[in-house]
């Protein structure tokens, strides 16, 4: 450990930071006698960098030397950069020292391509051996496989690492060839196939022999760059959905394109990183993985791209008013999950609680349902008795809302069936806009409760009078 | 308004529950020993804690609650939030009186409150599993300071004892003035001397003189890594603060100086 390491780390971290993946979940493992470290299956974030991304692993390149010239990559050979490489021992020691101080959960090792894919892969494997073998490190290791690397090398890496990944980077092959002439989809999908095969074989093996060494126990992931080429969201989601059908792929990461090589005319001129689009893609990804949505439901034939103003779940709900209103006390779990404003946790809580008692809007609000959103999609909200929800609200009548939305003039009560999707869309957009404005103005945004006033003749409740209400 | 005065420990609270059933009268407020009773307090019963009393209540709870349920009750106690002891008292009473398994009934306000509060404590614990920062001292002990909102120190120990089994380490809760020292799989309670405490109160870090030789450099390397890994085009300090609230920064190696 010396000043030189500091300089190297700075360069190799700068070169590695555009990779979005930094998760450490998927494998639980206790320490071994005389070893250092363990792995927590739920994953653990150790810090958050200035861009708000989680730092879980020491994310570095082994080297930023590269023989390739990919248009979207900061490390392409035509860029004039200081080029360095870690020593095998140096990297292993740095990882252990960081780990001992609880800065990190483990190592995320990627690399520029030095000489060729196989040579680079060997260097990576040597670093892993040092770490796992000589230094007896039991923490998490994520390794980026080099496209085009030999199957035998991938096999070796998989026995040392917890997660392997190969980046697709550009969703369509034509665009990949245009931007990265030395790569093709074959060089990406082949290693992915080998990893998948390795995981499956290993699963069988471990059924027979419990002590068989595990192969990439946290599965594999991949990354696509968003906005460097002209694929639409539908293509991207279809591709992700196909990948998730395979047995070993745990995550697809979407990385909004940061224009690092602005001089390259093959790249689009972006004013800013497409962060909103990236966020919408992640939301859609979550819908596919946890909420039971199919890619074709999120975006159908008529729509190539996600709505940037509304999240994909609301967008789906607005296109399918016939699905609503959903009765939280009767509908099955899957249907409750489709209600905007209800997440995995609150849906589970509702299903659990309704076995005992009728779940009321007040319950739902306390269970974490965003009622200002869900109110348009739930059945039987009005007329549930007294309390904070006030008197029954006949649908269609103008009601005043308390709290954040009390200036939303003339918002009507009722479900999407009664109000129509266009009205609900406008109301939701307006609510969000007001929420943002209040936040900006430094006014604390009250808990997201829609408080129905009694209608005509009474002033909207002020924040003081709200405090007095039993909630 | 009946008040119970009890020794402020989890076992003390269980003894209070025992007394309430014994006396067949339930308090409307709980006071700790030495706490001045508010004007509204009427009669006051003083709870004598014995292991037998608390043991019997605990055994009853074990019958009525699942393992997770017991864990949640413990988390509520560790929350140290105002009124959480009375919440827990009422909850235990509710559980003991219930004819059927109650702990999953989230429509019951007490059950929901207990679940939400337990979750808050569990969240702080998992946050701290990441945010604890060890500094290597000249004696080779890995030393960390925390000052969590809830009393989660005891919930961190098993994790670090497994992860750093071979190491000697010490985690000190500056807010509650108590620490735990780990060596070879055993835990010992630890005290700090006054100058060290003063320095920690001020800067959140150990004075450089007490650190191991290469520690300052290593911390510098980590800080530089922390800066390099952020993508400037995506800068979003608001998101950073939401995920890593400012109250933790004082004890983070990577936080800018002056925090």
Describe this structure in words.
The complex is a heterodimer of chains A (471) and B (259). With 471 residues, chain A is an alpha/beta fold. Chain A has helices spanning 3-16, 88-100, 117-134, 151-160, 173-179, 185-208, 233-245, 275-290, 295-298, 312-319, 333-337, 344-353, 361-366, 371-374, 416-419, 421-440, 463-468, and strands spanning 47-48, 54-55, 57-61, 106-110, 140-144, 163-165, 220-226, 249-256. Chain A has a 6-stranded parallel beta sheet with strand order 3-4-5-6-7-8. A two-stranded antiparallel sheet of chain A has the order 1-2. The longest helix of chain A is centred in the middle third of the chain and has 24 residues, at 185-208. By secondary structure, chain B is of the alpha/beta class. Helices cover 46% and strands 13% of the residues of chain B. Chain B is built from 9 helices and 8 strands. Chain B is elongated and about 65 Å long. Classes of the chains: A alpha/beta (471), B alpha/beta (259). At the A-B interface, helix 1, strand 1, strand 2, helix 2 and helix 12 of A face helix 5, strand 4, helix 6, helix 8 and helix 9 of B.
List the helices and strands and how they pair.
The complex is a heterodimer of chains A (471) and B (259).
Chain A: H1 3-16, E1 47-48, E2 54-55, E3 57-61, H2 88-100, E4 106-110, H3 117-134, E5 140-144, H4 151-160, E6 163-165, H5 173-179, H6 185-208, E7 220-226, H7 233-245, E8 249-256, H8 275-290, H9 295-298, H10 312-319, H11 333-337, H12 344-353, H13 361-366, H14 371-374, H15 416-419, H16 421-440, H17 463-468
Parallel strand pairs in A: 3-4, 4-5, 5-6, 6-7, 7-8
Antiparallel strand pairs in A: 1-2
Helix pairs in contact in A: 2-3, 3-4, 4-6, 7-8
Chain B: E1 3-6, H1 10-23, E2 29-32, E3 44-46, H2 51-64, H3 67-79, H4 84-97, H5 109-131, E4 135-136, E5 142-146, H6 153-163, E6 169-173, E7 178-183, E8 186-190, H7 194-203, H8 215-228, H9 237-243
Parallel strand pairs in B: 1-2, 1-3, 5-6
Antiparallel strand pairs in B: 4-5, 6-7, 7-8
């Amino acid at each position: 450990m010396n000043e030189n390491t500091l300089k190297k780390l700075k360069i190799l971290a700068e070169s590695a930071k555009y990779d979005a993946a930094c998760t450490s979940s998927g494998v639980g493992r206790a320490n071994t006698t005389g070893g250092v470290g363990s792995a927590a299956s739920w994953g653990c974030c150790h810090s958050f960098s200035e861009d708000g991304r989680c730092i879980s692993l020491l994310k570095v390149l082994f080297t930023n030397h590269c023989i390739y010239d990919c248009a979207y990559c900061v490390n392409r050979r035509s860029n004039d950069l200081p080029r360095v490489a870690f020593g095998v021992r140096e990297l292993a020691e740095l990882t252990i020292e960081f780990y001992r101080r609880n800065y990190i959960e483990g190592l995320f090792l990627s690399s520029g391509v030095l000489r060729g894919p196989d040579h680079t892969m060997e260097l990576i494997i040597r670093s892993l051996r040092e770490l796992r073998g000589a230094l007896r490190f039991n923490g998490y290791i994520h390794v980026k496989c080099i496209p085009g690397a030999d199957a035998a090398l991938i096999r070796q890496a998989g026995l040392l690492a917890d997660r392997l990944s190969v980046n697709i980077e550009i969703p369509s092959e034509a665009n990949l060839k245009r931007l990265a002439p030395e790569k093709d989809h074959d060089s990406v999908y082949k290693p992915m196939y080998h990893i998948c095969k390795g995981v499956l074989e290993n699963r069988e093996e471990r059924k027979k022999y419990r002590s068989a060494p595990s192969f990439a126990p946290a599965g594999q992931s991949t990354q696509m760059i968003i906005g460097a080429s002209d694929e639409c969201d539908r293509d991207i989601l279809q591709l992700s959905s196909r990948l998730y059908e395979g047995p070993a792929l745990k995550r697809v990461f979407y990385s909004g394109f940061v224009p690092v090589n602005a001089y390259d005319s093959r790249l689009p001129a972006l004013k800013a990183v497409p962060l909103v689009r990236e966020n919408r893609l992640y939301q859609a990804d979550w819908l596919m993985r946890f909420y039971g949505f199919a890619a074709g439901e999120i975006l159908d034939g008529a729509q190539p791209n996600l709505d940037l103003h509304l999240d994909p779940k609301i967008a789906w709900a607005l296109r399918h008013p016939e699905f609503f209103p959903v009765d939280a006390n009767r509908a099955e779990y899957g249907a409750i999950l489709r209600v905007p404003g209800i997440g995995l946790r609150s849906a589970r809580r509702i299903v659990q609680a309704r076995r005992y008692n009728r779940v009321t809007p007040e319950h739902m609000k306390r269970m974490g349902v965003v009622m200002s959103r869900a109110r348009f999609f739930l059945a039987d909200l009005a007329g549930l008795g007294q309390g904070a929800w006030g008197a029954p609200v006949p649908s269609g009548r103008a009601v005043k809302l308390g709290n954040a939305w009390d200036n939303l003039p003339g918002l009507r009560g009722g479900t999407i069936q009664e109000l129509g999707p266009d009205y609900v869309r406008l109301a939701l957009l307006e609510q969000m806009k007001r929420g943002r404005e209040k936040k900006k103005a430094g006014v604390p945004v009250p808990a997201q409760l829609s408080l129905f006033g009694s209608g005509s003749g009474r002033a909207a409740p002020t924040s003081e009078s709200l405090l007095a209400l039993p909630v | 308004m009946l008040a119970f005065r009890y020794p402020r420990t989890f076992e003390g609270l269980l003894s209070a529950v025992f007394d309430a059933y014994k006396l067949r009268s339930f308090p409307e407020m709980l006071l700790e020993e030495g706490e001045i009773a508010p004007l509204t307090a009427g009669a006051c019963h003083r709870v004598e804690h014995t292991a037998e009393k608390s043991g019997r209540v605990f055994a009853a709870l074990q019958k009525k609650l699942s393992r997770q349920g017991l864990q949640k009750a413990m988390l509520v106690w560790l929350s140290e939030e105002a009124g959480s002891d009375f919440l827990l008292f009422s909850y235990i009473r509710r559980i003991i009186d219930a004819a059927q398994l109650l702990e999953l009934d989230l429509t019951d306000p007490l059950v929901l409150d207990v679940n939400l509060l337990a979750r808050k404590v569990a969240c702080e614990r998992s946050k701290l599993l990441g945010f604890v920062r060890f500094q290597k001292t000249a004696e080779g002990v890995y030393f960390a300071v925390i000052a969590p909102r809830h009393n989660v120190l005891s919930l961190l120990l098993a994790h670090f004892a497994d992860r750093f089994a071979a190491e000697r380490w010490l985690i000190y809760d500056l807010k509650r003035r108590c620490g735990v020292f780990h060596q070879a799989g055993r835990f010992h309670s630890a005290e700090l001397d006054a100058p060290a405490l003063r320095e920690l109160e001020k800067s959140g870090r150990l004075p450089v003189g007490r650190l191991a030789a290469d520690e300052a450099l290593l911390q510098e390397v980590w800080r530089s890594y922390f800066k390099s890994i952020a993508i400037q085009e995506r800068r979003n300090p608001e998101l950073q603060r939401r995920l890593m609230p400012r109250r933790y920064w004082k004890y983070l190696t990577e936080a800018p100086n002056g925090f």
